[in-house]
User: Fold this.
Amino acid sequence: MNLVADLHVHTISSGHAYNTILENTQSAREKGLKLIAITDHGPNMPGGPNKYHFGNMKVLPSIINKVEILKGVEANIVDMEGNLDLEKNFLQELDIVLAGLHDDCFIPESVEDNTKALIQTIQNPLVHIIVHPGNPRFKVDYERVVSAAADYNVALEINNSSLTIVRKGSFDNCREIARLCKKYGTLVAFGSDAHWYERVGEFDKAMKLVEEAGIKEKYILNTSVDKIKAFLKSKKNKK
Ligand SMILES: [Zn+2]
Ligand SMILES: [Zn+2]
Assistant:
């Protein structure tokens, strides 16, 4: 399987990542990627960018270092209703919106409440990808989350960093999510979640899980730039 895009990359704007867009695109180019999504944390993350960071992304060119970029955010889900920490008018202007549950931004609730938060987020037509749903800090009912994602045409991320350096204890959850994605035909997005340029485009562990689950290439967004664009467009039509 040839992966041509990284849909989850951080820059120094996140406050706890260590490279610039120039460095990340250069790294992506060296690794043969055609596209990366710049997805810094939403404003509620301590040390994260303010909303004007996202509002001003329009000044960036769409190709940097010969790598196409998607201007995006990794928004924080702030409550059980699936509200995000960036207003709708900002989200609408971005190419791609990732959303997920993060420490310091969402207090873990019961499985029922966490599940509700994710499903309400999935139902938001502005959201494209749910990030690291396998995080053991926020237990959810995977069966319901994965089937809702299929119903609402939202991709679920298999986050390579969750399987290597952060969110310890994610492995079994991610394997279960991959199994259910195969069962329901849910779209999968790989994200390196790189906070350091060398990790851009690193998907080895995530890829292994997805292959073990038998998920076919057509359900994996990162395999084609055209597929990513068609997916983003299909969501735009429903706004
Ligand atoms: Zn981060
Ligand atoms: Zn991230």
Observations:
- The pocket of zinc ion (ligand 1) is lined by residues 10, 14, 16, 41, 195 (CB under 6 Å).
- Helices lie at 21-30, 51-55, 88-91, 111-122, 142-151, 171-184, 204-213, 225-236.
- The first strand starts at residue 5 and ends at 9.
